[in-house]
Fold each of these.
Amino acid sequence: MNRNYDENIKAAVAKFEEMLRGQLERNEKICASKDFIDYAALDKIIIGVCGGDGIGPRITASARRVLEYLLADEVAAGKVEFRDIEGLTIENRAAHNQAIPDDVMEELYKCHVILKGPTTTPRAGDPWPNIESANVMMRKKLDLFANVRPVKVPEKGIDWTFFRENTEGSYAVGSQGINVTDEVACDFCITTTEGTERIARLAYEYARKNKKDHVSIVTKANIIKTTDGKFLRICEEMAKEYPEIRTTEWFIDIMTAKLVDEKRRTDFKVFVLPNLYGDIITDEAAEFQGGVGTAGSANIGKRYAMFEAIHGSAPRMVTEGRDIYADPCSMLRASVLLLSHIGYQREADALEAALDFCMFEDAALKMTGRDTGATCDAFTEYVMANIKK
Ligand code: IPM
Ligand code: MG
């Protein structure tokens, strides 16, 4: 080496140490975390509602309206409460210079589950300070380790459920990378035993309960040998406890290709995969179903759960005045997952059937995102009119 890097290395090692300490502490917390909350044992389930940014408030209001309709008796009996959580807007987050302002976080901690509209994540060049993503922060703070994303296209034989690990991998310390020098940058990827076991357990238990006979483990363990290697090994071990389920192993590149292979893809049922691959491939998967606007997502932890669209806040739809045509289906699909998660399976099934009917079978109204299609409000009413309570 020609140059002296001692000071750069010293500074980088100090940051690296801080990152490692944080991750070891997080790991201890995961290991100490208790069983899943039992919603049936609660006097009241509190559903926090955050509208978010861009098209978020509109599509979240649509989902809330449908949920309030389905849970009207429970709300009247005081068993379920819908609670507005203010302040999860980009303006307020920017004003506090925090991904989630402390007072908003305090309110979120008082809920059991959260219905959340998309929130804007600032990018370079945006007028906002470079704060972290509110989604990612919420997933971390509430330890929502499983991102469950179903994708269904009945006429093409597609019925997939993705179990994306949600708090580790490349996201765990996504804003704690190190610029070692002006020329050399370094990021980190984290896999823990407990963190992998809990997502694998959830995926296999789901497969068993729902009689899905195939689980695919997706990594890039041939290259990312330590962290993806660990993820793969732990999932393989878990597979042995579920002998009735066929397990296949894939690398993310070829799996991305196989999802467009019409002959092979109908064979896939349940996927379990690290955070970043899950992020990428679920957008691809949603595209077959009609785009990210049609896909909902559950973020599940042991104490909390959060339900959201898989897409962003679509600010361009708002600036172009097209937000009245925003597709509420992502948030309505998220509502199906919410209902099922808190124990209202009958209501979840009723909403899912109405959505399948309106999106795939009847299609009297079509969402196109512009004035060639239905408005968000009209589609919401159409779905409600087709719910068999
Ligand atoms: C998702 C989104 C988020 C993610 C963004 C908005 C931070 O793409 O939920 O898939 O990367 O996880
Ligand atoms: Mg994504």
Note: The chain has a mean pLDDT of 96.
Amino acid sequence: MLTGKVLNEYAKLVLKIGVNLQKGQGLEIICPVEKRTVAHVLTKTAYQLGAKIVNVRWTDQTVDKMTFTYADEKTLTEVPKWLVDSKNYLVENNFCYIAVSSEDPSAFKKIPAQKIAVYSKARSKALKKFSDTVMANGIRWCVISVPTLAWAKQVFPNEKNPEKTLSLAIAKTMRLDTENPTEEWTKHVETLDKRAEFLNQTQFEYLIFENSIGTDLKVGLADDHVWLSAKEIAKDGLPFVANMPTEEVFTAPHRLKVDGVLKSAMPLCENGQIIDDFSITFKDGKITDFCAKKGYETLKQLINTDSGTARLGEVALIGKNSPIAKSGILFYNTLFDENASCHLAIGKAYPTTIKNGNNLSVKELLEKGANDSVEHVDFMIGTKDLSVRGIKKDGTEIVLFKDGEWNI
Ligand code: ZN
Ligand code: ZN
């Protein structure tokens, strides 16, 4: 279990390497109500590290499920002003932000996809200013996960103590099983950084993804795109790590220059519903066709959210030998699954993946090819036989990925 010494170590890692909490700074933690202990340890550790104030906000999928069941659709689109204000308060007062993402992947299985879609769209729209700031690294933020019983049961349905097994798996991906996790993380961040540096120096015009299940996709990269990895720099100049664990090197695709077909490599959990075995076709950056054996309605709602959800906002490279991929576990949680496989995201691009992007307007970013939307949803396309070729402006090419692993 994530308890005792391991949990203390985990909290320290997230606060120091993750959000890089500074003395005198405020912190907000979003945490599932059944994981009170985790929030308590994070809070205590944050105060010990000098936090000015720690706010904890609880999430509760049981209450959410009741709301989705009984509230009418119109009510679900109403977003309280205090919620929007409370998020903007974090930005205005330079808080750090930790989100504990531990949803039960099937929590809303029986709720009509349409109901969740209207709720989620209204929230994303109302909170766009905040999510834009987060995506532009206007505050230092970090997404982490701890196992809940419902989630663990989905991952390990046949285990006697699924929560314990999932805890051990997460501890491993967080490198908490090593002697000095902080040192391991520093080394890991450096390795990823070197790959990003190589890609930035080479400046490919586009990438070609191919595999045996039918992915054949040309992904043009945005003008002035920047490859990023684990270490990001916030607006205040301080480094932080936005996802823990993380294995990816990522940038912005060009919103008008994606052509071909992709096949999903793993299921995608979106708003407590599962989308699986899907394929998407693109022409000039836009989704022109899609199908899904499971969760078609949810995928359709997602793609139709706004004009930006029919285009891509992220392309990320991850080798098949990353600790998460090697574990062979399907986590049903994007934080882990996206780090086991090359992935793309539907929706908004991170402004930080464009040179000087934080100082550009949405219009200027769009002109460079960086997509805008109220959504950003990652999905996995990396299979064990995936090849990725990078093509430069002069037509020369470099094989970046061979059989699902880095080739550089
Ligand atoms: Zn990503
Ligand atoms: Zn993403």
Note: The pocket of zinc ion (ligand 2) is lined by residues 314, 345, 376, 378 (CB under 6 Å).
